[in-house]
Design a protein that fits this description.
The complex is a heterodimer. Chain A is mainly β. Helix content of chain A is 0%, strand content 50%. The N and C termini of chain A lie far apart (37 Å). Chain B contains no helices and 11 strands. Chain B is globular, with a radius of gyration of 13 Å. Classes of the chains: A mainly beta, B mainly beta.
């Protein structure tokens, strides 16, 4: 069964450094998402991406964040200058043509900012 | 603002003891109510989508139901492998995001 994959599984970085989190969505899906989950808290929406552009973003997704689909398979989240409060699990998700359909999530990248 | 509230926060059941998890939602125009299972340190795993009040979906020991304000996840004769956090999420017309609740942490004791 097709799955969303994410790399790395765990990333440790120092405050102020740039990080890039990588995702490979399910191959026939067209809508891509990033969510985050701070330890012990809710899963929170960050951004959605369709047709090579951002279609929606939350208040969390400020100028420090960017997304890109650099080729036909990868989808990346970049944090330019990490802060301690960026420490969280970051999940990539994707779904098919219909936006109302269920989103399938990857296993997540645990980001630790020290 | 869309809101999703789940109760209880945690539930411990004996193996075979049936129960229900609650999800209350306030969404301006529900396009779908989604149930996910999350194991520790893993991503949410899709279980069900419900679109309209009165709809029911079943999968093995789980059954999800939907009303205009709530959804219930009924678990019948649970087994230890059903232990996980169950997340409810709502999607509204006009946007693509899912709004999640905090989840119910379910523990099934053998």
């Amino acid at each position: 069964e097709p799955e969303v994959t994410q790399t790395p599984s765990h990333q440790v970085t120092q405050m102020g450094q740039e990080v890039i989190l990588r995702c490979v969505p399910i191959s026939n899906h067209l809508y891509f998402y990033w969510y985050r989950q701070i330890l012990g808290q809710k899963v929170e929406f960050l951004v959605s991406f369709y047709n090579n552009e951002i279609s929606e973003k939350s208040e969390i997704f400020d100028d420090q964040f960017s997304v890109e689909r650099p080729d036909g398979s990868n989808f990346t989240l970049k944090i330019r200058s990490t802060k301690l409060e960026d420490s969280a699990m970051y999940f990539c998700a994707s779904n098919k043509i219909d936006r109302g359909s269920e989103q399938y999530f990857g296993p997540g990248t645990r980001l630790t900012v020290t | 603002e869309d809101q999703v509230t789940q109760s209880p926060e945690a539930l411990r059941l004996q193996e075979g003891e049936s129960s229900s998890l609650n999800c209350s939602y306030t969404v301006s125009g529900l396009r779908g109510l989604f149930w996910y299972r999350q194991d520790p340190g893993k991503g949410p795993e899709f279980l069900f989508t419900l679109y309209s009040a009165g709809e029911e979906k079943e999968k093995e020991r789980l059954k999800a139901t939907l009303t205009k304000k709530e959804s219930f996840l009924h678990i019948t004769a649970p087994k230890p492998e059903d232990s996980a956090t169950y997340l409810c999420a709502a999607g509204a017309f006009g946007n693509e995001k899912l709004t999640f609740g905090t989840g119910t942490r379910l523990t099934i004791i053998p």
